[in-house]
Amino acid sequence: MKKQFAFLTILMTAASLTACAAKTPADQSAPIPAETAAVTAAADHSEPEAGSDHGDWLSKACGTWIIDMDGDQCELRIESSDEAYLRLTIDATHDFYFDADESFHCSGNTVPKDGYSFENGKFSFSHNGRSILEMEKLDGSDSIFGEFKLTGGSYREIYEGSDTVIDSIVMTVKEDETLATADQVISLFALTADTITMNPGSTDEAKTAPYVIEDNTLKINPGTENERDYLRKQ
């Protein structure tokens, strides 16, 4: 079903934590992620004075909202009238994963435990002298399964200069499954008392839609067939 315009639906095409395989000089495959969208400067807006009516609507809008778009769940974090981030979680199993024997699978290749380094919660994998993937366990444990901060390698380098907040990238490693989560800067974001504006991702033109906040629900295009309801994260 064709997606109707909602202030975050259009951003799904701009957020790209997916990756592709690339050939190494020795004709061996290594995981390298696809390029992400270029950063577009955010619009400049003045902040309201505290205690004013202007500040009341902004304080209600700021925070994190849970969004479910055709089965894809993500989070919108509104920091101010001109700053917001989209936190996405996607399936990155096609980039790499670990099986029950803790073998590392990437680009169609299987690397046994002795083919990579994992000590003191730090994982690293290199191929032909090139660092492909470096991660650090968030809880410091010695289990290969769990949440990792992406710290280095060509898998991380591709996001430098993009609108992905690199230090926010977390890889969740499960048996035969890998998830990638990261914050994406929302370009040309602007919020007023009754409208929300942002860059659709595919063009430099900003899009605007009306919204209302009722209790813990943020409604975009309220009262229309295109209404989308998002819940505040508790």
Quick structural overview:
The chain is mostly beta strands and 234 residues long.
General description of the model:
This protein has 234 residues and is mostly beta strands. It has two domains: 9-20 and 42-90 and 185-232, Lipocalin (Beta Barrel); 91-181, no CATH class. It contains two helices and 19 strands. It has helices spanning 53-61, 154-157, and strands at 19-23, 29-33, 63-69, 72-80, 83-91, 96-98, 104-106, 109-111, 117-119, 122-127, 130-137, 146-152, 164-174, 177-185, 190-191, 195-198, 207-214, 217-220, 228-232. A 14-stranded antiparallel β-sheet has the order 9-10-11-12-13-14-5-4-3-19-18-17-16-15. Strands 6-7-8 form a three-stranded antiparallel β-sheet, with no helix packed on it. β6 (96-98) and β7 form a beta hairpin. The longest helix is centred in the N-terminal third of the chain and has 9 residues, at 53-61. The protein is elongated and about 60 Å long.
Helix/strand class: mainly beta
* CATH-defined fold name of the largest domain: Lipocalin
Using the 3D structure, state the CATH architecture of the largest domain: Beta Barrel
- How far apart the termini lie comes to 30 Å
| Beta-strand content | over 45%
> Mind telling me the CATH class of the largest domain?
Mainly Beta
Q: What's the count of strands?
A: 19
H/E topology pattern: EEHEEEEEEEEEEHEEEEEEE
Cα-atom radius of gyration = 20 Å
Overall average residue pLDDT: 78
Tell me the number of structural domains: 2
- Count of helices? 2
**Unreliable parts:** 1-52
Oligomer: single chain
Share of helix among residues?
Answer: under 10%
Largest sheet: 14 strands, antiparallel
As laid out across the biggest beta sheet, the strand order is 9-10-11-12-13-14-5-4-3-19-18-17-16-15
Shape: elongated
